Amino acid sequence: MSHPPDELVRRLAAGLRAAELYAPQHQLVQRSVQALAGACTAFLADAPAVVVGFIGDDVVVNDTRLGKGSASLTGLVRGLRDREIEKITVHRGVTAAEIQAFLAELAAKRARTPLAERLAARDVRRIVIGKLSIEEVEQDQVGIEAAKRVYNTAVQSAESLWEQAKAGDKPDPNTARRIIDSLANIVTQDRTSLMALTALKKYDNYTFTHMVNVAALSMAQARGLNLEGPLLREFGFAALMHDIGKVNTPKEVLNKPGKLNEEEFRIMKQHVIDGAHILRRTPEMPALAPIVAFEHHLKQDLSGYPENIGHRKLNLCTMIVSIADVFDALRSNRPYREGLATVRIKTIMHEKDSPAFNPVLLRRFVNLMGLFPVGTIVRLNSEEVGVVTAEHPEDPFRPQVKVLYDERGQPLESPILANTWERDWRGEFQRAVVESVDPDSMELDPLTAL
Ligand SMILES: [Fe+2]
Ligand SMILES: [Fe+2]
């Protein structure tokens, strides 16, 4: 069976027209979504992706230039040009739901947020819009490599914010803004890469990676609650600066292995007060920042510290930041202990009757993170190492893993695809994920390993 490119484009044009004219539930829309899905699937049977490009009045599918077409094609080309879309890439595995959402958003002419953002918000991952002319740049801005660059820059800037505060100066709000803007982009466009980055375990510059991680993890949560724009950024700011009061905490206390004694704990607790002071004297910082700095060690029942603050309702941002804060602190390597496996973190965070976190936000966070999101490098109980290729819808502890290294750390010639939810004839699991592994330590790029 052949799958003429014209058919795909005709279906696309018809789908867009239907979506412009009728409500999403309308029969005609539904039918054209199905038709377009069919055309895509047929195309994607022998290629991982299909690219539809629009150059001038021409339409190009992969490398095939379509002849000057019918009026409907001309309409499509013009419509997309108006929307400044030069390229639509559809990836294998695209679902009817994604196509439907894509058409609906494409048809929504009065929407204020950019199309790419709306698509991300609706979880349309396998249809990507772009421009032909800036293809290279664009490729550069997504993916783990780009995320890594953004992340490393953010960590460096966080360090300079820290140094400014430490020297008694105001932390430069512009530096903070740049960090937040760059993170906001990844959080909306490429969450998977960002999550993979924050999962890297590094302790040499824990202070600064912690700032950036908490900001990223908090913004991702806020995005999940549909916050966007200036408020999303304010949350990012507050999260980034939550521990800034620690510039006054002596190193011996900050990095002390083991439990703090009473006096040391008293010193440690001071960082929430100092943080609020530092941020309050920086008027360009959002008002939320000192509040979150002040509140972030308070639990739902107002235990924790600062003590005796009377009755108050914790700010939503505080509750989000404290989840991100504890999660990152437990996950990261500290001088005195190894980073905990994600599983243990989940156990701790879920301890029954723990008043530490807002239960609804916590549940959302755990779902958001997935325990072992796709792309995570994991160690199995068999000592093999692999990359998570799919999540198990019901049991986040048991993903599908592509095993890349055997139990002695030797790379496998042909990787094994292991479904860790499968049991052997005795009813026992053959493999289980023990922990996630820093891809850097394996010199492994999780995304190319996928
Ligand atoms: Fe803190
Ligand atoms: Fe913290």
Task: Walk me through what this model shows.
The chain is globular. Helix 8 crosses helix 11 (229-240). Helix content is 50%, strand content 11%. It contains 19 helices and 10 strands. Strand 2 (58-61) and strand 3 form a beta hairpin. The protein starts with a helix and ends with a helix. The protein has helices spanning 5-21, 27-44, 71-82, 96-107, 115-121, 135-141, 143-166, 173-189, 191-198, 206-224, 229-240, 251-254, 262-280, 288-295, 316-331, 342-349, 359-369, 439-442, 446-449; strands spanning 49-55, 58-61, 64-65, 87-91, 127-130, 377-380, 385-390, 400-405, 411-419, 433-436. It is α+β, with helices and mostly antiparallel strands and 450 residues long. The structure holds fe (ii) ion (2 copies).
N to C succession of SSEs:
HHEEEHEHHEHHHHHHHHHHHHEEEEEHH
Q: Treating each run of at least 4 consecutive H or I residues as one helix, how many helices?
A: 19
CATH homologous superfamily descriptor of the largest domain: Hypothetical protein af1432
Structural class: alpha+beta
Instruction: Kindly provide the name of the CATH class of the largest domain.
Output: Mainly Alpha
Rounded radius of gyration (Å)? 25 Å
Order of strands in the sheet with the most strands?
A: 3-2-1-4-5
Looking at the overall shape, the CATH architecture of the largest domain is Orthogonal Bundle
